[in-house]
Amino acid sequence: MKVLVIGNGGREHALAWKLLQSDQIEQVVCVPGNGGTATMQGCQNLSLAVDDFAGISEYAVANSISLVVVGPEVPLAQGITDYLQNQGLMVFGPNKAGAQIEASKAWAKALMAEAGVPTAKAAVFTEAASAKAYIHDQGAPIVIKADGLAAGKGVTVAENIAQAEAAIEAIFQGQFGSAGNSVVIEECLLGQEVSILALTDGLTIRPLLPAQDHKRVGEGDTGDNTGGMGAYAPAPIATAELMARVQTEVLERTISALQARGIDYRGVLYAGLMITPDGDFRVLEFNCRFGDPETQVILPLLETPLEYLILACIEQRLADMPPIAWKQGAAATVVAASGGYPGEYIKGKVINGLVAADTVGATVFHAGTKLNADQEIVTDGGRVLNVTGLGGNFQEALAQAYAGIKEIEFDQMYYRRDIGYRVCNG
């Protein structure tokens, strides 16, 4: 099989890496890919934009691509699955109607209400004055979210009214583009977040290993929200009992609600949960794709060939598949970011030490990198690398990840030194 992977991040590098472990996959093409996919054996990059549906389709048809796997949420929300399927291509990822579950937080909230999915109390506003009046009535802390897609950065946990008002102003003044046409304001829930990624064929839904992300840029979970500074799996806080409840109260109810709306949802359904101190949970949001950096710790633990699961979802035969097989132990990843991220940062810094990181046993998934004209790997984004370690336990996995990242350097490189502190320190 020849597989085309859409996207250029660490998630897409991990998808290509995992697919190429199968003897059924002869080649992976990444659109547009990054420095890691450009230099990985069996993989090549194709310099097209992720929203160039016509160009992607023409290439896939002309080059006998068997399967298209869509990584990012933006092309899914724009309808890439619908377009490519209409050209006769096999695509993994929900259609445009299904992708609304991430593209609009307000739409997702309404769906959860219909389905009876436990979630935070929320209200939706289309202008700043009424939104500000609401937060004055509710008080702080309170959560302010841009309604649409904002690359994981459109959420503010406001500790006071002034912060909440500033977040509302930023959203309505266009900081997040069209994502700021409306705002969702939620009660602030306390606890730990956990990511539940599940595969579905529209009828059956099966969860992958639970993972825990570190969204704040600073150690001790301080500072601005990011796309994720590190992750580990399987997250111990997601006990077997809790996962059983998530299966029935979240995953199955959501798929039933989508069916009731006439939406045939095939792909990844990713539920971001808040686990409260009393062990209960609420759904914070849904995503319509693999998580990043959660994918970089889930796929290294997956034993079942990834394409088997993907094809079962596309062909609507997930119910007939044997249980998903997993490796024993744990995985952890640490993100190496550009100085200044998630604010402004400089690109084009030469990255050294990648071979040395591999030598100590870490797996380096490239995110914001590219191969320059001198055949050097240079920085090309905010989150630059995901350095992943495996081990029999979390301490071993984290030790391997940090041993790898210590071998790497580029100008103004930054990474959190406390990834996994909950599972290591209790």
TrEMBL record:
GO terms for molecular function: phosphoribosylamine-glycine ligase activity. Residues 109-315 form the ATP-grasp domain. Its EC number is 6.3.4.13. Keywords: ATP-binding, Ligase, Nucleotide-binding, Purine biosynthesis. SUPFAM superfamilies: Glutathione synthetase ATP-binding domain-like, PreATP-grasp domain, Rudiment single hybrid motif. SMART domains: GARS_A, GARS_C. PROSITE patterns: ATP_GRASP (PS50975), GARS (PS00184). It is an enzyme of class 6 (ligase). It catalyses: 5-phospho-beta-D-ribosylamine + glycine + ATP = N(1)-(5-phospho-beta-D-ribosyl)glycinamide + ADP + phosphate + H(+). It holds the Pfam family GARS_C. Its cofactor is Mn(2+); Mg(2+). InterPro entries: ATP-grasp, ATP_grasp_subdomain_1, PreATP-grasp_dom_sf, PRibGlycinamid_synth_ATP-grasp, PRibGlycinamide_synth, PRibGlycinamide_synth_C-dom, PRibGlycinamide_synth_C_sf, PRibGlycinamide_synth_CS. Pathway: Purine metabolism; IMP biosynthesis via de novo pathway; N(1)-(5-phospho-D-ribosyl)glycinamide from 5-phospho-alpha-D-ribose 1-diphosphate: step 2/2. Belongs to the GARS family. This is Phosphoribosylamine--glycine ligase. It comes from Dolichospermum planctonicum CS-1226.
